[in-house]
Amino acid sequence: MFNERLKNERKLHHYTQEFIAKKIGVTRAAYSAYESGKRQPNFGILKGIAKILNVSTDYLLEISNQKRYRNNIDTQRPDLGSMAEEILAIIQKDTAADFWGEPASKSQKYYLQIALKIALKLCKESKKK
Predict the structure, then answer these.
(1) Is the pLDDT of residue 71 over 60?
(2) 115-121 mean pLDDT
(3) In whole angstroms, what is the distance from residue 18 CA to residue 27 CA?
(4) Is the pTM of this model over 0.85?
(5) What kind of fold does domain 2-60 have according to CATH?
(6) Residue 102: helix, strand or coil by DSSP?
(7) For the chain, percent helix, then strand, then coil, each to nearest 5?
(8) 43-53 vs 2-12: helix crossing angle, rounded to 10
(9) Who contacts 5 (Cβ-Cβ below 8 Å, separation ≥6)?
(10) How far apart are CA 32 and CA 66, in angstroms?
(11) Could you name the domain of life of the organism this protein comes from (predicted)?
């Protein structure tokens, strides 16, 4: 059911109801009613939720079991090195960011930055061998 998929996807992302409600511009109580099946979101809110959870509206509505739409962009394999470098750039610019749905603290950003730098260095060195 829609409400079960909604709740499961939110939990997979470690998001709170409050976080998603704030992002889509509704109260936590309204969002909670979507997850309990007491209310249904309008189309605009549904699209917003799908974007936050990185799933298709068809998946949330159980029209499809495929979480994401397939198109030329989605069928390309993700480049983990580029993704890691993008995250590092965000941290180094001290851009506001979230960590599992909550504002990232300075220490979380710092530890992530150190871990990514070490991981990228090790990956680059292993490629040379």
Answers:
(1) no
(2) 93
(3) 8
(4) no
(5) 434 Repressor (Amino-terminal Domain) (1.10.260)
(6) strand
(7) 60, 5, 35
(8) 30
(9) 59, 60, 62
(10) 24
(11) Bacteria
